[in-house]
Specification:
This protein is of the alpha+beta class. The protein contains seven helices and 13 strands.
């Protein structure tokens, strides 16, 4: 158990509905209880939205110093876009507010639009995001109904693969650089198709050299901590 203070990296399969901070808080509390200590450093290397599942990298003790070197790793996501509908948050956090035609969308148009989003692109973050604006999260302004101006950032999409057999739901796999918003990819994809799109499912499967295949559920991690089992 002393390894937690010296430094441990734990791969978590984050459940749907949990925030990244929820995971950090529960693991930190369990370690403190097990070791009988008041403080221990615990942090995560890259936030996952509450509605996303999958790989969340947790670092404890001295390993928290590695977070900055872990975060730039290439991220891989799988999930689903729904064409023909959009929401203010670009995902299911908010209600559908607009509907669009999809009859004009052909397999060829789907592929052309996909190709336009591969490579180095300029991307605007969603207004419902954790982006810091004047010391406040963008989603706080959005939930208060305030209009804010978000600046675009440069990101890179290394690969973008789609399956169209469940149209208008489009299943995808995307590998991208740090800081990419998959919700914004959904919105941009819909616009390129002269329609709209919403991210309705998202799962992170890889981050750098780490894979969700080697991760544990929060419940199993907590159980391992309780019995003093190593990771």
């Amino acid at each position: 158990m002393e390894n937690f203070q010296e430094g441990t990296t734990i791969l978590v399969d984050k459940p749907y509905g949990w925030t990244s901070f929820d995971v950090v808080k529960k693991i930190r509390w369990q370690i403190r209880q097990k070791l009988g200590i008041k403080k221990i450093k615990v942090g995560h290397a890259g936030t996952l939205d509450p509605l996303a599942t999958g790989l969340l990298i947790i670092c404890t003790g001295k390993h928290t110093k590695r977070i900055e070197e872990i975060m730039p790793g290439i991220k891989t996501y799988t999930g689903t876009f729904l064409l023909g509908k959009s929401t203010p948050s670009f995902d299911l956090e908010t209600e559908f507010d607009q509907e669009y035609e999809t009859k004009h969308i052909t397999p060829e148009k789907l592929d052309i639009a996909r190709n336009k989003l591969v490579g180095k692109i300029e991307q605007y973050p969603p207004i419902y995001s954790a982006k810091q604006i004047d010391g406040k999260r963008a989603y706080d302004f959005a939930r208060e109904g305030k209009t804010i101006e978000l600046k675009p950032s440069n990101v890179e999409i290394f690969s973008f693969e789609i399956r169209t057999d469940r149209f208008p739901e489009i299943d995808f796999q995307i590998s991208c650089s740090k800081g990419t918003y998959i919700r914004s990819i959904a919105s941009d994809y819909g616009k390129l198709l002269d329609s709209g799109a919403t991210l309705i499912a998202l799962r992170r499967t890889k981050s750098g050299d780490f894979s969700v295949e080697n991760s544990y559920s929060p419940e199993l991690i907590i159980e391992k901590i309780k019995i003093g089992e190593s990771f």
